[in-house]
Amino acid sequence: MALNLLSPTEIKTLSFLDSSKSNSNLNLLKFQGICCIYIYICVCVCVCVCTSGFAFKRKEIGCTASKRVHCSAQTPPPAWPGRAVIEPGRKIWDGPKPISVVGSTGSIGTQTLDIVAENPDKFRIVALAAGSNITLLADQIKTFKPKLVSIRDESLLGELKEALADVEDKPEIIPGEQGMVEVARHPDAVTVVTGIVGCAGLKPTVAAIEAGKDIALANKETLIAGGPFVLPLAHKHNVKILPADSEHSAIFQCIQGLPEGALRRVILTASGGSFRDWPVEKLKDVKVADALKHPNWNMGKKITVDSATLFNKGLEVIEAHYLFGAEYDDIEIVIHPQSIIHSMIETQDSSVLAQLGWPDMRLPILYTLSWPDRVYCSEITWPRLDLCKLGSLTFKAPDNVKYPSMDLAYAAGRAGGTMTGVLSAANEKAVELFIDEKISYLDIFKVVELTCNKHRAELVTSPSLEEIIHYDLWARDYAASVQPSAGLSPALV
Ligand SMILES: *[C@@H]1O[C@H](CO)[C@@H](O)[C@H](O)[C@H]1NC(C)=O
């Protein structure tokens, strides 16, 4: 399928051609010259979907046995039931909105601070929590003058105080885990950005929810591991969970104002990662360096491997389920190599809405801070999307032999409860082992499957926070101990 974009004068039609499928419709839409105008545009297109049903004919493998036994009745309420509307009476912030950032020296944190620095009339920083980068944290304190600061590594407290010796308005400093919690629930903060990785992000996020803060969500464990615990809590405290990653933000942007029950399908786009053009047979020879080459986004090692295996997308399917309440049968993955469409939704009347933009993490972060408002962005720092320069956008169905992660993720999602956290933690450990050259590329899938299989007997449907953290640790330990080549699973041989 290709979406061909011609130069402005030639634009008459926007077409989806599917050369490989004979039974698909050819949809032509009048396209009225509105392209090349906005940084992001929400186009309404009739997508001609591969009728082969790539999302439905999944082999039942791995963690599937618990399907339906544990789910339905226990499924937690989604963050957004397929629609996003502002309740009447909800306070719209005037003047700079006070923000806390947990994980301020990481990639999400630094991009958040760039946005705040660019929009001092819209946002201000009240509290920052960092891991161990004292130099950067000290710079951030000097620039943003937060009231409260936390450094996770307590041994660095002295060094931080030294670095702030000549700062006039010194912030309060609370080290360690308690500090992160206090930053997350700082009384002045309205929104908390959770840019910290791993289950370490759970406690501060829970503290922020209990204190009634909106969550700009960049920590995937919050929903993937913590969903069954976090979502009911967010509902109880009437807290909004605003997705800060590009795919879920795209879906979130597309469901704005959608009437109840109007969402039919979620379509997550995936770049296809480093091996999208590799034949399946060659995957057994993959080297670490091959997996670390990503075509579109420049990311950390772990995430780059996750996009090669497509585990990142599998985990996003689970997150989409928790965020938007879509059933797993109604969430699909489509490979879109250009990464310009960040995801789509289909409404009941078969209309498809997409959100487009350059691959840039700042836009979804900005929207979590500004929602429901839209902030003007200068084209000097925010290049505007030029569809004509792009020429064409292409799509293809993901191959579930090449990406066994999809079946594993859907199966874990359907099992629900602690299974999704186990899947994610096992994958993290497996990727670490692969990067350290302890296991092969294909072993990543086997390690994850074997760990999920092992967990089936112990699955907890409505886990406590302690149980979530316990099984996260258990999955990492177990994944490190399995011998993938000794325990070949029939589905993956
Ligand atoms: C701290 O952050 C800066 C800026 O991102 C980076 O250049 C530096 O390497 C980091 N230092 C440590 C110790 O991670």
Q: Would you kindly provide a written description of the structure presented here, covering whatever features stand out?
A:
With 493 residues, the protein is of the alpha/beta class. 35% of the residues lie in helices and 15% in strands. It has 17 helices and 16 strands. It has helices at residues 107-118, 134-144, 157-163, 176-184, 202-210, 221-224, 227-236, 246-254, 288-291, 301-309, 311-324, 362-370, 387-390, 405-415, 419-435, 441-455, 465-481; strands spanning 2-4, 13-17, 27-30, 42-45, 97-102, 123-130, 148-151, 172-173, 191-194, 214-217, 241-243, 263-270, 331-335, 341-347, 352-356, 392-394. It has a seven-stranded parallel sheet, with helices on both faces. Strand 9, helix 5 (202-210) and strand 10 (214-217) form a beta-alpha-beta unit. The chain starts with a strand and ends in a 12-residue tail after the last helix. It binds 2-acetamido-2-deoxy-beta-D-glucopyranose (NAG). The site of 2-acetamido-2-deoxy-beta-D-glucopyranose has 4 residues, from helix 2.
Taking pLDDT < 50 over at least 5 consecutive residues as the criterion, the unreliable ranges are 4-73, 487-493
What is the number of E strands? 16
Strand-residue proportion: 15-25%
Structural class: alpha/beta
Largest sheet: 7 strands, parallel
Which hetero ligands occur in this complex? Answer: 2-acetamido-2-deoxy-beta-D-glucopyranose
Termini separation comes to 31 Å
Order of strands in the sheet with the most strands? 8-7-6-5-9-10-11
Q: Supply the number of helical segments.
A: 17
Report mean pLDDT, rounded to a whole number.
85
> Measured on Cα atoms, how large is the radius of gyration?
22 Å
Helix proportion of residues, in percent? 25-40%
Shape: globular
